[in-house]
């Protein structure tokens, strides 16, 4: 049975970007925890060529309702033209961990909708 929570994978090219995304996601309560795994070696297609890069993998624990907000935040603060944001549902976990995850993330923010509402008020 699925839970209301996700793990999101984001790769970054340097520690400064990893730190910026980590602190921002936590401050905005878009994530309860971000784990940074250094030493990832990625190979991928980019503009018709195979590229290789050393990266840091961010493992972001969040609410499923925050997916769009996490994607928007990453796009705004990531230097890559096409940053990776891959979500996997958390199928099961201890109740205590899920309670902690929920208590440390926003219930919902819908940043895009919030910005549209602000414009209407102006």
List the helices and strands and how they pair.
Layout: E1 5-12, H1 15-27, E2 33-46, E3 49-63, H2 67-77, E4 86-89, H3 95-103, H4 111-121
Antiparallel strand pairs: 1-3, 1-4, 2-3
Helix pairs in contact: 1-2
Structural description of this entry:
This protein has 122 residues and is of the alpha+beta class. The protein has one domain (5-121): Alpha-Beta Plaits (2-Layer Sandwich), CATH 3.30.70.120. It contains four helices and four strands, in the order βαββαβαα. The chain has helices at residues 15-27, 67-77, 95-103, 111-121, and strands at residues 5-12, 33-46, 49-63, 86-89. A four-stranded antiparallel sheet has the order 2-3-1-4. Strand 2 (33-46) and strand 3 form a beta hairpin. The termini are far apart.
Summarize the structure.
The chain has a single domain (5-121), classed as Alpha-Beta Plaits. Helix content is 36%, strand content 34%. The chain is built from 4 helices and 4 strands, in the order βαββαβαα.
Number of domains: 1
Summing up helix and strand content along with how strands pair, one would put the structural category as alpha+beta
What is the total tally of β strands?
Answer: 4
Q: Reading side by side through the largest sheet, how are the strands ordered?
A: 2-3-1-4
Characterize the main sheet: 4 strands, antiparallel
Order of helices and strands: EHEEHEHH
The number of helical segments is 4
How would the global form be characterised? globular
Radius of gyration: 16 Å
Helix content: 25-40%
CATH topology: Alpha-Beta Plaits
């Amino acid at each position: 049975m699925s839970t209301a929570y996700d793990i999101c994978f984001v790769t970054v090219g340097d520690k400064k970007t990893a730190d910026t995304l980590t602190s921002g996601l936590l401050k905005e309560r878009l994530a309860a925890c971000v784990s940074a795994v250094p030493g990832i070696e990625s190979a991928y297609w980019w503009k018709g060529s195979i590229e290789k890069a050393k990266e840091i993998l961010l493992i972001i624990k969040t609410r499923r309702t925050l997916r769009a907000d996490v994607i928007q935040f990453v796009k705004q603060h990531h230097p890559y033209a096409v940053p990776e944001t891959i979500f996997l549902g958390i199928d099961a976990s201890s109740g205590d961990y899920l309670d902690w995850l929920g208590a440390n993330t926003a219930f919902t923010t819908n940043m895009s909708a919030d910005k549209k509402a602000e414009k209407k008020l102006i």
